[in-house]
Amino acid sequence: MKFTKIHSLGNDFLVVEKQEVPPKIELSPLVRTICERHTGVGADGFLLIDVKDPDQGLVNFSIFNADGTEPEISGNGLRCAAAYLHYRQSVKPTQLHFQTHAGNRESLLQERNKRYFRIRIEMGEPLFDSAKIPFDDGSEHEKIIDYPLTINQKIYHITALSLGNPHCAIFFDRFPSRIEWHQIGREIELHPFFPKKTNIEFIRVLNRDEIEVLFWERGVGETLSSGSGSCAAAVASILKNLTNKEITVRTSMGELLVEWKKGVVYQTGPAEVVFSGDFALD
Q: Around Cβ 180, how many Cβ atoms within 10 Å?
């Protein structure tokens, strides 16, 4: 099975075209095996793409986390998929249209330098209603901002939303230790108030144009960056009137630009092709 490894600010994915996967193979065990960093190729996620119309740039997109679960969408995953298609010259236009489990999403190639790509991704309109996130504490909420969530006898004021996948944002003046925020991330990811689990963003506001974010991703754990997580962190910051509507998100590996314009969220950032290979299937 031929694959290509691509990363966006350290958030790495294995991109595979649909025709490479035998029709009867179980995808979840395959994903767990190939994404394992010690005995497989190693990655945060697995992207399965199928070009439906190369002239129009129409592409079916599915993503799997390293644990074999299938989330709805990934901003960095979309950018890596777009980079792969432009790298392979599998599509003609610079603007691509992806069909995801969260709906249609567009990408726009802004720059290319050999294996490096800069791509803008449309992430859609954020959802705030508790039923659509989903978030269920037994009550209905139009928005969840600074909700007091108890974890291990401590109260964390969370802001929750969906960008096609659930997110939980927590703000700090100073980040907790790595061990501590990992523990908080695990507890919130599996909290019963999030019936589909959740991604968690730990946010430090630097000024009205910049935030710094640490990421705990559902089904993965700590990641060096996250596209949808960066967007969720930006939207949460804007909702709380802590930042402007166009901000730079600093991650452990670099920066993303996030914009919230006319109700739609966009994120712009890099993707880089690492290598290609052939994974032996049983």
A: 10
Q: Where are the beta strands (DSSP E) in 136-241?
A: 144-151, 154-162, 166-171, 199-207, 210-217, 221-223
Residue 11's nearest CA partner among 38, 39, 35 is: 35
Domains defined for the chain, CATH in brackets = 2-124+269-278 (3.10.310.10), 130-262 (3.10.310.10)
Q: 57 with 96: CB under 8 angstroms?
A: yes
Pair 109, 94: CB distance under 8 Å: yes
Question: Quick one: CA dihedral 55, 58, 60, 64, positive or negative?
Answer: positive
Which helix (H) or strand (E) covers residue 31, if one does?
helix 27-35
d(CA 255, CA 212): 9
What token pair was written down for 257?
């630009």
| pLDDT, tens digit (0-9, with 9 covering 90-100), for 95-153 | 999 999 999 999 999 999 999 999 999 999 999 999 999 999 999 999 999 999 999 89
Ramachandran assignment for 89, one of left (phi > 0), alpha (psi -120 to 50 degrees), beta (any other): left
